[in-house]
Amino acid sequence: MPPTNLPDSSSSESMMKASHPLDVWREKEYVSPNLHSLMPLGIAIDLGATHTRAGLIDRSGQILHRVSTPTPHQDIARFLLSLIRNVATEEEISQAVGVGISAAGPVDIQQGVLVNPPNIPLRNIALVGPLTESLGIPVYLANDCHAGIIGEAYFGAAQETENVAYVTLSTGIGGGILSGGRIILGKKGNAAEIGHFFVDSTYNMICGCGYPGHWEGYASGRFLLSFYRAWHIHHHKTFTEIPSIPEDIFHAACEGLPNALEFMDTLGIINGRGMSDVIVAYDPELIILDGSVALHNYSHLVPLMEEHIDRFLPLPEIRLSSLDGDAPLLGASILAYGYDTSIGSLNEGGTFLFERKSEKGT
Ligand SMILES: [Zn+2]
Predict the structure, then answer these.
(1) CATH annotation of 160-320
(2) Residue 267 Cα to ligand 1 middle (Å)
(3) 34-57 pLDDT, tens per residue?
(4) Distance from the CA of 10 to the CA of which of 99, 190, 211, 215 falls in 20 to 30 A?
């Protein structure tokens, strides 16, 4: 039965006080299924290096419909429009609160442009303008890891915590930071590009951005194989089994192959340096690990990484994302509902049926 004390959506007072993306809506339990069709939905897109996913998502984070397809390297705006029309009917689109796009950075969130993601061969692609014009509803863009930490703040491990680093080890490596309950954005929405932290001058691997020594150039899904080969050459090791995909390296470690196990320790040092930089840069109380490389290889990656993290600051809690890889998509849905980066919470237009979460500790 609906409560009688729903917040007044016409008043901005509660949201003016809101300073925290943890102001989670609580209307989930108030919604009966037969009301679902009457409720506005958000359209979310997670534009990744290899795959792009789209979802039709309600305010409680329930993904009602989703599609996933390989990311093309041209006509991205037209591709996204087609994907949106695949995930939602024209009626649902016209009634949707908006579209949120999570995209591999760098991005320009003010201009709504995908700038030059190192793992996708696209440069300066306008997304927000063409999509807004075609769909006639608001469209918002964010760096994928910023969308990821928003997803975690609303639906995942960061719901109860104000200082969180979201670290994704996937095709690339990226980060999103919640500091004092607010996202650190930077000038154009590219803060915490932690994959480009400098972590090594021994192997001098060249990152996708073109510069040597960056974390992503070693431990990302895109570069693990190259690093594995370079490590063998540097240490005059011979391949006992030539890997063709990054998973082969982890399988070799599982089987106890000495070279693979030794390489895992070097990889632990590299990951430990990256994480040490994250900790001293942002002082998080929690680090959430996400991305296919981290999620599928926890036992080989995380203990060795933790072993090699500096203890200059106390080691924060480190845990895997519990959102099944959906944190950026869910965060993009929050963008669609009107997440205001200036107040770190949903803006006035997104306050309908919202109930402010009680202050932490009260
Ligand atoms: Zn780089």
Answers:
(1) 3.30.420.40
(2) 17
(3) 444 557 899 999 999 889 999 999
(4) 99
